[in-house]
Amino acid sequence: MACTSCSTGKDGQPKGCKNNGTCGTDGCNKLTVFDWLSNMSLPDGTEPFNFVEVRFKNGRKHFFRNSENLSLSMGDVVATEASPGHDVGLVSLAGELVRVQMKKKKVAPDSDEVLKVYRKASQRDIDVWQEARDREDKMKVRAREIAIRLNLQMKISDIEFQGDASKATFYYTADDRVDFRQLIKEFAREFNTRIEMRQIGLRQEASRLGGIGSCGRELCCSTWLTDFRSVSTSAARYQQLSLNPQKLAGQCGKLKCCLNYELDTYLEALKSFPRTDTKLYTKKGTAVCQKIDIFQGVLWYAYEGEWMNWHKLTAEQANKIIASNKKKEPVGSLEEYEVVLQLEENKKPDFNNVVGQDSLTRFDNPKASTGKRRNKKRKKRKGKPSNNA
Questions:
Q1: Which residues contact 247 (CB under 8 A, 6 or more apart)?
Q2: Distance CA 8, CA 11 (A)
Q3: Which residue of 72, 235, 339, 389 shows the fewest CB atoms closer than 10 Å?
Q4: How would DSSP label each residue in 110-168?
Q5: pLDDT of 337-380, one tens digit each?
Q6: Element of type H or E holding 171
Q7: How far is CA 66 from the centre of its chain?
Q8: How far apart are CA 260 and CA 231, in angstroms?
Q9: Run of H or E including 325
């Protein structure tokens, strides 16, 4: 965390700034932003970019026009235009980086969809906002009970109140289309507020709720990942991963986003490898690829009919045999190339285990006592005076 007030206190206990999502340093929130242009001044005669990025609950962000020329900085609580009424959020980014983000998200500054900032939030605005936030958990439980009673195949994952408490947005996931007309009537009667239902995907649900991934860290989608790129099983095949749905799927039930992180590196490394479906033709027989190791740059081949005997070749040797096959030049056998590879591996010095320090069992066997130690012990015994004397 970037917030200094969230550091550990006595006996390693976390202190926490206890700002309930309104941390002024913007280091205690999801999808936090670092303004690396904050210490740079604009050239003379250049007007500052009159737009800000405002974050709402669970990382929801929108761009707003600062038409009142308010002095806004990161962490300020502002009241923004909404339909109807107004909403309350935190300024997550201001200055020239907002221009870059709007260009990246393809949001035009003169678009009618870009609303404006009304004012800095007063204490009354913050009190109403906090009271509405405190009602969300209880409403979520009651809303799920009503949906179950109506036998609707949907899951209500989150509720978000508007800043002035005039509207509540219910986020839900469903496999099929849901007829929630009766549900909205009961919600409006039960909660006495304006209701809006918004369907989200499973990945968006995981990013809003957050959690801990199989790597032991917080989910990427809830901390820093803002765009969801499509992930296919071919990404796992290129990385030589077993197609096990339980290991490849994340908490959202879809393929993990991290499968795409190193995919480009694997694809670049695979360019030097021959295709796995290419057979090697030798005088001894036809060999078929069984396995590849991208890190070591080697492949294992087996002759047809001798599937238990694998022969290790480098990618360069395999490409050389394929080139000879295309030229119809005779190739003796894979064993000839395998012997050359073994000789090269034996010549390589082993710098990792020179003195045997990498062995985990080096202390298991006790050292044998040498003859010199035994002779010294015998001399000491002979030199001691006898008790009988």
A1: 214, 241
A2: 8
A3: 389
A4: T-TT-EEEEEEPPHHHHHHHHHHHHHHHHHHHHHHHHHHHTT---EEEEEEE-TTSSEE
A5: 888 877 777 776 655 665 556 666 766 776 665 566 677 667 66
A6: strand 167-173
A7: 34
A8: 7
A9: helix 315-326
